[in-house]
Structure formats: structure tokens, C-alpha cells
Design a protein that fits this description.
9 strands, seven-stranded mixed β-sheet, mainly beta, 2 helices
């Protein structure tokens, strides 16, 4: 009698879902509503859900002939750095998810080679790659404070997007302050010839 298992899967992560609870009848559905921890950073340098942050999963797993269809939404708190003022803040972000996970030895599994569908690992499906793709497409490359509900940039010293602050004469944009110190100009001598 052998004591070794047929497969050597690692311990499932927080975004790995077990599909054994779904009846193997096409159309059978199982809701998943839970909080999971992000196993790694999801996003890019200026906007990302940090590793260890909570993700709210509100999903429906549906068994279809070729595998399991995952639909629903995932939300969490992202750490954002404004591309305009370089101020950091947190905001709630969410994506809608529709992903097909194919069963091995089915016709849909052939699409996995071209990255058209994802494969189930036995009865387990890993949401992390799908979330990385979904949030990566959702996040702007240059996020700003105004993209996430702020009326203006959170760093008050940054000029408005038109480049004119208009609130204080002679105030120097902090991004250019080093040049002003080097060349001894305060920005008030515009128009001199």
C-alpha cells in the first residue's frame, strides 16, 4: 500500500477556491461571499492593492460542460500615488470578473495553451492571476487624486492641471523648487526680456 499522493500540490492560497461544492450538473451554481487576503501586491507602481490587504469576494461559481465559470465582483483598498502631486492616499477599488476555468481533457482546455481560458488544478481554481489581469486593465497608468473622488490634489502646493495655481503670487511648484534655488529665480519675473 502506497502512502504517497498522486499529486504534490502546494497548500492552497487565500485566493484558491475549491470547486467540489458545485454539483457537476451543467448550470449548477454556488455563491462565494467572503473576505480573502491578497497573497501578493496586485497592481502597478502608482496604484496597487498591497500584499496582505483584504479583498471582498462576491462571486458565483457556475458549472458548465467545459469547466467552471466565475462571475461577480472583487473589491479592496488600493494604495494610490497621485501622478500630478505625488501625494499618497487610499481608495476603494473594484472590478467585475468573468473568467472561465476549463476542466482538463475537455475541448476548452486546448484554449489554455493560447491563454484564452484558465485551467482548473484538479478541483481547485486560482483567482490571483485573473485578479492581477482584471485590476491591471482597470487601473489607470497615471492615477490622480481627482480620479478617486478628491476635488483637488491632496498636496495643496501643487498647481492645478492647467499649471497655474492662482492662489499665491510667486509660489513655486515644489517639483521645480530645486531649479529655483539653483538659479535664484522665484518665478515672479515672467515677461521680462
Amino acid at each position: 500500500m502506497s502512502t504517497t499522493s498522486r499529486s504534490h500540490r502546494s497548500a492552497p492560497g487565500p485566493l484558491v477556491l475549491d470547486t467540489r461544492s458545485i454539483s457537476r450538473t451543467p448550470g449548477a451554481m454556488t455563491p462565494i461571499q467572503r473576505v480573502a487576503v491578497a497573497p501578493s501586491t496586485i497592481g502597478v507602481e502608482m496604484i496597487a492593492i498591497p500584499e496582505g490587504a483584504e479583498l471582498d469576494l462576491d462571486l458565483m461559481l457556475t458549472f458548465v460542460d467545459e469547466g467552471v465559470l466565475v462571475t461577480g465582483s472583487v473589491s479592496g483598498q488600493a494604495k494610490i500615488e497621485c501622478a500630478r502631486c505625488l501625494g499618497e492616499f487610499h481608495a476603494e477599488v473594484a472590478v467585475d470578473l468573468t473568467e472561465m476555468y476549463a476542466l482538463e481533457n475537455k475541448a476548452a482546455a486546448e484554449g489554455a495553451e493560447q491563454d484564452e481560458v484558465r485551467l482548473l488544478d484538479g478541483d481547485l481554481l486560482d483567482l490571483e492571476p485573473a485578479l492581477v489581469d482584471a485590476f491591471g486593465l482597470e487601473f489607470p497608468l497615471s492615477p490622480t487624486c481627482t480620479d478617486y473622488g478628491h476635488a483637488e490634489c491632496i498636496n495643496a502646493d501643487t498647481p492645478r492641471p492647467d499649471g497655474v495655481s492662482g492662489e499665491t503670487e510667486g509660489r513655486i511648484d515644489p517639483r521645480w523648487a530645486g531649479l529655483a534655488e539653483k538659479f535664484g529665480t522665484t518665478g515672479t519675473d515672467e515677461g521680462r526680456a
